[in-house]
Write a structure and sequence with these properties.
Length: 144
């Protein structure tokens, strides 16, 4: 329920921001994801958990808001940067790479089983921060 509520609430805001600048949307969503994962991971390390079901729902809600921003920014950036002849190819490649990354996410499950979820969440924070930093170098593709 937390994930669905976050998707519904965040989609309009991220969509409007992406219409203005998908690059800035990617940076903001990556930074938000890094913050959420760092806070949740830090709380997990400090307290030995994130507050049971309520804490987990809050963490999922916040992470899903960041995910929706990355998703909206990626899709709109790809659509606006690609020429008509290449748009379908770029979309297929992008979706394939995302799918492979999600499948590789199973490795994080193994790491969480071995080291606990908090260190893995802190690792996600680093990955999200790197994504936000890399988005800075993207070309601004939206036109006024």
């Amino acid at each position: 329920m937390a994930s669905t509520a976050a998707s519904v609430l965040a989609s309009y805001v991220w969509g409007r921001l992406s219409d203005h600048s998908s690059r800035q949307t990617l940076m903001a969503a990556g930074a938000l994801g890094a913050l959420v994962f760092a806070v949740v991971g830090g709380v997990g390390v400090a307290l030995g958990g994130i507050g049971g079901p309520v804490g987990a729902a809050a963490a999922i809600f916040a992470a899903q808001i960041a995910y929706e921003g990355v998703r909206a920014g990626r899709k709109l950036h790809l659509t606006d940067m690609a020429e008509d002849a290449f748009r379908a190819r770029y979309t297929a490649l992008s979706n394939t790479l995302i799918g492979l990354a999600l499948m590789a996410g199973g490795l994080f499950g193994i790491a969480a089983d071995r080291f606990g979820p908090a260190p893995v969440l802190l690792g996600f924070a680093v990955i999200a921060a790197l994504g936000a930093i890399l988005a800075r170098d993207l070309e601004e593709v939206q036109k006024d």
